[in-house]
Amino acid sequence: MLTTVKHKYELGITSVVKSTNKWLWIPAFLIVLVVGDRLGGFLLKKITEHSQFRFTSLYQDEAACDILLVGNSRGLSFYQPFIENVTNKNVFSLAYNGMAANLAEVFIKDYYNKYQAPKKLILEITFADRTNKELIPAFATYLPYSKNLQSFIKQKERKTYFGTKLSHLLRYNSEVFQRAVRHLNRSDKLWLTDRRISAAMLAESENLENISIDLIPELETSLVRIVKLAQKNGTKVELVVAPFLPSYGSALYNLNTYIKSIEDKTQLKVHNYAHAIKDPLLFGDYFHINIFGSEKLVEIMNKEGIFQ
After folding, report:
1. Does the predicted model carry a pTM greater than 0.85?
2. 10-residue block means of pLDDT along the chain (308 residues)?
3. Which helix (H) or strand (E) holds 4?
4. How many CB atoms are closer than 10 A to CB 22?
5. Which domains does the chain possess?
6. What is the pLDDT of residue 15?
7. Are 275 and 243 spatial neighbours (Cβ–Cβ below 8 Å)?
8. What is the DSSP string of 230-293?
């Protein structure tokens, strides 16, 4: 009888142990997951910090300049090496493909918080015509370095903000981090379209008509705040419209209205170079001059004193 009871007791203990072991893997797995995520995030953060990408330079105290360039991909038309050659000044660009004025405002605030004010700020103002919400989460890579960026992403992309709190690896799942990796061993000062527009695209452009460029009120407000911030810190601001392919520019019917609104809000003249370059071979597509077009544009801007 005692043997039977003892046997049943041992079986019970064994069952409890097996049941306990069965569930132990869950917290163990979670611990490994969290530790792996934090370790992976730390390693990718270190990779980012060793990049020569412009936004890494901004947060690694390597962006001090005399002339600061800002805009979307059309802002890349202001080619840094050309401007440095004609001015003998330090030039830094915060232009990025598809970047809207509200996101640019975040980085400009961070610039003025970290550096002595540049003598000149050149804004390509067509970055106020679309919000491009899809781009905002991509800059989560730089969340650890900027309270302004944290507040902005928390406001605009709450899922991204709280997701990156749970998983640090999520910060690096983006095109922005990929660009940082691409520029680990090379400067991004040479970032500019170097192709010539294709014959097919050029032919198609002849049929373009009634194209609009539409000011987004929120983005115009950001642009105005950028101007006021720069002026408050003693920076001379130049507002610029970069060239469009001539046939595209001719089809753009309300650009003057767009410019007039910004001039009224900022009380600054907009330097309109939308039609300044006529040769189609100096363009890469409808919206962007190539490196040859940029050289010509920088010459024009320099003659008009934009960089002085």
Report:
1. yes
2. 50 51 56 64 89 96 96 93 94 96 98 97 96 94 96 95 89 93 90 88 90 95 98 97 94 95 97 95 94 94 92
3. helix 2-49
4. 9
5. 65-132+188-303 (3.40.50.1110)
6. 55
7. yes
8. HHHTT-EEEEEE----HHHHHHBTTHHHHHHHHHHHH---EEE-TTS---GGGBSSSS-B-HHH
